[in-house]
Amino acid sequence: MLTFYHAPWSRSSAIFWLMEELGVDYRMELVDIRAEGGVPEDYRAIQPNKKVPAIDHDGVVVTERAAIAIYLADTFPEAGLAPMIGDPARGPYLTALVHHDAVFDPAICAKVHGLEYVSNDYPFGLYDDLIAYLERRLSEQPFAAGDRFTAADILLAAGIGYTMNILKGLPDRKMFRDYLERTTDRPAYHRVQEKDAAMAAEIPALQRMMAQVKGT
Fold first, then answer.
1. Is 62 helix (H, G, I), strand (E, B) or coil?
2. Which uninterrupted H or E stretch holds 94?
3. DSSP bridge partners of 60
4. pLDDT tens digits for 44-55?
5. How would you classify the pairing of strands 54-57 and 60-63?
6. In angstroms, what is the C-alpha Rg of the chain?
7. Which of 103, 126, 135, 204 is most exposed, with the fewest beta carbons within 10 Å of its own?
8. Global pTM value
9. Backbone phi, psi, residue 63, to 5°
10. Helix/strand/coil for 104
């Protein structure tokens, strides 16, 4: 049994995309992270900060997107979303996955919230260094970890798409748009976009967000 804890239009949407790419059976448990009063306390047994995503696979709980992506892509190798151990591409693949959670997300959040700091103040480094690294990486190779689409692209494409188009936390550059075109023209991605939008339409806080997006 594979249970996926999800909130539409959230960080867990990338894992939703991954689940659809895997093509395996799973049960979705919706977590209303925007509910008044917050997420029920008993959810901490699954995720200590009451965040999404999380999965429970036959009693094994995994949290944090990079860890979930590594676990699922390795558990279901027939989907072809991860280089195998021993493949030279394995190192760049793991680096890209962990970089997204450890550097991309916090550096974007710091930028959006106006946090001023020097590189050594925080382990995720500077926003400008992040942008330079992304541009260099995507100019040298078509995908996050090399020449083929992997689970690392699911996290990176979801992150670039949201932060550039919705959050406005990334500069709107052709290199990023070209990358999104390469990675999101996939049936699983489009299925998730439709399903997430339908679920979001039932949540008042997200109804307001969708109205704002349509108005921009």
1. strand
2. helix 90-99
3. 57
4. 999 999 999 999
5. antiparallel
6. 17
7. 204
8. 0.93
9. -125, 170
10. helix
